[in-house]
Design brief:
Strand 8 (192-199) and strand 9 form a beta hairpin. The protein is of the alpha/beta class. It has a domain at 67-213: Rossmann fold, CATH 3.40.50. The longest helix has 17 residues, at 2-18. Helix content is 28%, strand content 26%. Bound molecules: S-adenosyl-L-homocysteine (SAH). S-adenosyl-L-homocysteine binds next to strand 2, helix 4 and strand 4.
Amino acid sequence: MHEKLEKQRRIAVQRLIEFGVIKRKIVADAMLRVPREEFIPETYRDSAYVDSPIPIGYGQTTSALHMVAWMCEATELKPGDKVLEIGGGCGYMAAVYAEIVAPRGSEVRGHVYTIEIIGELAKKAEETLRRLGYHDRVTVIHGDGTLGYREAAPYDAIIVTAAAPGAPKPLKEQLKIGGRLVIPIGSPYYTQELTLIRRIDEEKYEEVELGGCVFVPLRGKYGWTRD
Ligand code: SAH
């Protein structure tokens, strides 16, 4: 079973390289190292490497593999980066970022902060990340990620994995100069535009639309519901 899934993981990553979604070896290596099957519910284990979103409970899904790669490439993640993720979900994507910013066995120690609004998911993600040895590189926070996480700001990259009405002001403010924010902007239940925002200086930001995508709705102060 284990070997079969590893083989499927290699094939999935190879395909993303061939399609041009994965552009850098460091992203391929990260995705080859993280066992997605360990983060998703037992019932979906056999489909761990199907390139589509997978339900993780509480009406939420973990993103498709091409979306994970796309986000890592769009934000130009590299060793040493400090990353903030909004929408921690099952923790899989945070583990992939961790393998890029603080590769196993390397002296370079970047860090990933991931915020999840559903307490049960945050707890489960934390447990899985701990079991797989990511706890020194990933910090899971339970709360409203639209407010960002000032305690560790500013960030080289901020990745929002839920559909937003617009880019939350606190997130733009918590970017380093030169930092990158990717966020799906658009309607909560249909498609959104994956948007890349780069901080040019203290006041100036540059915005580029990368293409269409579909995410679950962002909640919280700057999301679709004020909880
Ligand atoms: N990156 C995740 C994908 C999560 S799906 C993974 O690797 O599995 C989006 C997640 O965003 C859901 O778990 C949802 O509960 C969460 N979410 C929605 N609004 C949020 C907010 N304001 N702050 C933090 N998490 C939020």
